[in-house]
Amino acid sequence: MWLYILLGILQGIFEWLPISSEGIVALASLPQEINPIDIALFLHLGTFFAVLIYFRKDWGNVLIGKDKKLLKFLIIATIISLAVGLPLYLSVRNTAALGGSILLLLTGFGLLATSYFHKTKRKFGFAMNKLAMVTGLLQGLAVIPGLSRSGATIFGLSFGKLKPIEILKYSYMMSAPIVLVSTVYISLTNTIIFQAWPALITSFIIGLLSLHVLIKLSKKINFFKFTLMFGILCLVGGSISLFI
Questions:
Q1: Using CA atoms, how far apart are residues 85 and 168, in angstroms rounded to an integer?
Q2: Domain boundaries, position 146
Q3: In terms of pTM, does the model score above 0.90?
Q4: CA of 62: how far to CAs of 57, 59, 65, 68, 207, in Å?
């Protein structure tokens, strides 16, 4: 049980940070007789509920059709993510993480580029449909342990016209539909995964608290510094993991 609680804590913290939570949870869960990528994806259910509760007003606006821009973005991004992520998941679930350190380093460079975009106020202005396709693709690729979902989508969203706080909101909210679909799929194909219920509760509590702290932090510091900090964190983590 204590290992599951540890996994929940790791998921709750690293889901929002640009260090692949799948990679970390998968690595920590290796002693268990369960597919490490399966349990890593299953534990997203805890942070899924954290996203629902924290952004409950935004979800309400989406469900009643008040925020049509976000609704359309989520629909397009979800379709692209599933089209890319599902076959990729089936390909890598029984394979050790390939090049995880390299992917983490790439995420770090991507976030440094994001930081540069905001520092120089360089604008790309992707239309929302194109932005949804780009970030949906990046989110689908993030099923590979080592590639950070949040880091990749924050990088992708920086090519649009969104405000910094909107970039984070879109990045975190777009994970919810994918998590729901993947959890249903994994639950139907792997019954032993339900032993991980302590980790679900822990990941929800820690995830809600860490999300609150992170959003508050993003409002207090310049987005250039925010993404620069994320990028450096990725580079350090990737560099260390090369020698582990």
A1: 21
A2: 2-241
A3: no
A4: 9, 5, 5, 7, 22
| Burial state string for 128-156 with b = 16 or more CB within 10 A and e = fewer than 16 | beebbbbbbbbbbbbbbbbbbbbbbbbbb
CA–CA separation, 157 vs 225, rounded Å?
Answer: 17
pLDDT less than 70: residues of the chain: 1-2, 18-38, 92-102, 104, 120-123, 189-196, 234, 237-244
What is residue 19's three-state secondary structure?
coil
Q: What angle do CA 207, 116, 159 make, to 5 degrees?
A: 70
Residue 163: CB atoms within 10 A of its CB come to 10
Look up residue 34 and give its DSSP letter: S
Give the largest Cα separation in the chain, rounded.
50
Q: How many domains, in total, are found in the chain?
A: 1
Long-range contacts of 27-30 (CB under 8 A, 24+ apart): 27/97, 27/145, 28/3, 29/3
Closest C-alpha among 137, 124, 93, 114 to residue 234 = 114
